[in-house]
Amino acid sequence: MPRDLPVGNGELLITFDRLYQLRDVYYPYVGMEDHTEGDPCRFGVWVDGAFHWSSDDVWRRTLRYAADTLVTEVRLESATLGLIVDCRDVVDFDRDVYLKEVTATDTSGRAREVRLFQHFNAHLYGNDVGDSAYYDPRSKGLVHYKARRYFLLDGSGPSGPGGLASYAVGRKETGTAVGTWRDAEDGVLSRNPVAQGSIDTVGELDLRLAPHGGATATFWIAAGQTYDDVRILDQLVKDRGPASFVERTEAYWRLWANKNGGDVARVLPPDLYGPYKRSCLIVRTQTDERGAIVAANDSDVLRFNRDTYSYMWPRDGALAARAMDLAGYVEIPRRFYALCGELRTREGYLQHKYDPDGSVGSSWLAWTTPDGKLQLPIQEDETGLPLWALWLHYRRLGDLEFIKPLYRKLVRAAADFMVSYREPRTKLPAPSIDLWEERRGIHAFTTAAVWAGITAAAEFARAFAQDELAARYARAADEIKAAALEHLWDAERGRFLRRIDVLPDGTIAKDPTCDISLAGVWLFGMLPPDDERVVATMRAIEDGLAVRTAIGGIARYENDRYMRDDAVRPDVAGNPWFVGTLWVAEHHVACAKTAADLEPARAILEWCVARALPSGVMAEQLHPYTGEPLSVSPLTWSHATFVEAAQMYARKATELRAAAAARVMRAGETIS
């Protein structure tokens, strides 16, 4: 089930599914150590002897965010129960505490007693072995712990000093024990005080409603590494009042979302500017405070292949860092680039992917060729693109003091590797795995990314007055570009090839598959966007990969089988991807000569907004017939590409308006 409404602060990340079940609790790294392992933490309501979880059909659910914030606005409404339950979820921007503010309102015209139940389904450190939980009479809350991970579930009602009204601690998923959450369904908790092993807990808060009246209670979960950490934080919430944490965090994110403005604020209409800011905020939730930009934190994919997207791919991270640079959030890219400087290998390349703490992530890329020879299990675009993005960052900001330690540590080491790691006959980059992680060879996208990385290194070397080094890098970049135009351009088809393989006898085998990754040829500057070869290639992409269903969008490549429904017609190239569709928009922007030329790009931005979840969350891809999110949600790359495309659209619109105004002025001067 797609994730919706992520809320976080760079250390603690909470996610919900579309049934408003809390599903993931990541701490202390964003994307690492999912302390629920994706199992639901349920929220339930008892009224008039009837009990329902938020996932039950009795509710009409609305899941959104408050505008320009990382504070949710969730409504559970039931005509059957005569009740409206409004929830605001937030992770404090500064402290590692999650709060759920719940306001229940009667619509029946009767006085009511309402009991609220919050369930915590512990899998501390990502497993349910050896967990402990107990009712803590000091805080009047529930403490979960294992080793250096502590979580304290507590709350307060409309009156009193705080603390849970009732509680239950018990076993789950062992023998006949389904889970302690079942204990809540009669509206009365057992008050069992302690359990260990595979355990879960439920806390209760009570409300009394006047006819057509409302009342508010708040649950919170404090996260820490010791009991004292969570106990002190719990007391701080009680002393200041939970509402103050919700209000200050709402104010903080509203300031954050509106601090830059610029062309996007002036040019984009509200129906695009709001989603633009939402995308910036969602990228922020997926970014760890120590620099890792995580691809996605949706643990449901775990059930697909026993692994997740909760890794930092240097390529995805570089593209997201570039987008956030354009948006003015420079602290995110700076931390990312600094982390890349620490992660590059002794040989100079970056690995396939990394855990959020910088350790090397899992990989299915082989170190050996079929005949037993060594091959590097890398995607070389992941070494090139951080350099490309770093140069664009420096060119825009000129922050020399930040760049200085990265020049030798990252730029030179990576460039030296890329200059030497080449196929000897063609002088193209040596074979590596493509950006989709599906095939090995010499890819157009990778070639463009390597060219861009080496070109960036040459620019840095010139800036540091290392002219010989700059010349060496520039010469290698020129050789790669010339080889790309010779071997990757297919005159017969009138477009670029996705990939080539150089066979042992020197013969070149061509892969002509139409693939959205061919946009890399111009995205990273190897050729201008209006080069006739680029235009022909992008036209082939728009024609060949358009998803000709009511859903629309652009598929990844011809006959893409990933997450494909077997019932989809063969003439549908694949599922529409937000990233690829937005690259088409960016090409329209890059080639625009008039305001009218921007209309296709604007239409794509509007398509993305229409195909997102009501909260604004964008998945990786969509079902071509239903539009349902497929794979992970949200995908950081989707949101980052929306940010970049919106920025490019707004900047080009401003440029074209200025040029039109200048022409009018010159015409007036000529007449006068």
3D architecture notes:
With 672 residues, this protein is α+β, with helices and mostly antiparallel strands. The chain has a domain at 3-256: Beta-galactosidase, Chain A, domain 5 (Distorted Sandwich). The strands form 6 sheets. The chain has a 9-stranded antiparallel beta sheet. A 5-stranded antiparallel beta sheet has the order 6-5-11-17-15, with no helix packed on it. Strand 19 and strand 20 (440-443) form a beta hairpin. The radius of gyration is 27 Å and the shape is globular. The mean pLDDT is 96.
Strand order of the largest sheet: 7-8-9-10-18-14-13-12-16
Q: Major sheet: size, sense and barrel closure?
A: 9 strands, antiparallel
Mean pLDDT: 96
Enumerate how many helices there are, as a single number: 16
Quick one: how many beta strands? 26
The outline comes out as globular
Q: Which strand-content bin applies to the residues?
A: 15-25%
Radius of gyration: 27 Å
Helix content: 25-40%
Q: What top-tier CATH class of the domain at 3-256 fits best?
A: Mainly Beta
> What is the CATH architecture assignment of the domain at 3-256?
Distorted Sandwich
Q: Termini distance?
A: 67 Å
At the fold tier of CATH, the topology name of the domain at 3-256 is Beta-galactosidase, Chain A, domain 5
Low-confidence region ranges:
none
Q: Return the structural class.
A: alpha+beta
What topology does this entry show?
Layout: E1 3-8, E2 13-17, E3 22-29, E4 32-34, E5 43-47, E6 50-53, E7 60-65, E8 72-78, E9 83-91, E10 97-106, E11 112-121, E12 131-136, E13 141-146, E14 149-156, E15 166-171, E16 194-197, E17 199-209, E18 214-224, H1 227-240, H2 242-257, H3 263-267, H4 270-285, H5 302-305, H6 314-327, H7 331-343, H8 381-397, H9 400-420, E19 432-433, E20 440-443, H10 444-463, H11 467-487, E21 489-490, E22 495-496, E23 499-502, E24 508-511, H12 520-523, H13 532-545, H14 578-591, H15 599-611, E25 621-622, E26 629-630, H16 636-671
Antiparallel strand pairs: 1-2, 2-3, 3-4, 5-6, 5-11, 7-8, 8-9, 9-10, 10-18, 11-17, 12-13, 12-16, 13-14, 14-18, 15-17, 19-20, 20-23, 21-22, 23-24, 25-26
Helix pairs in contact: 4-16, 6-7, 6-8, 6-16, 7-9, 8-9, 8-10, 9-10, 10-11, 14-15, 14-16, 15-16
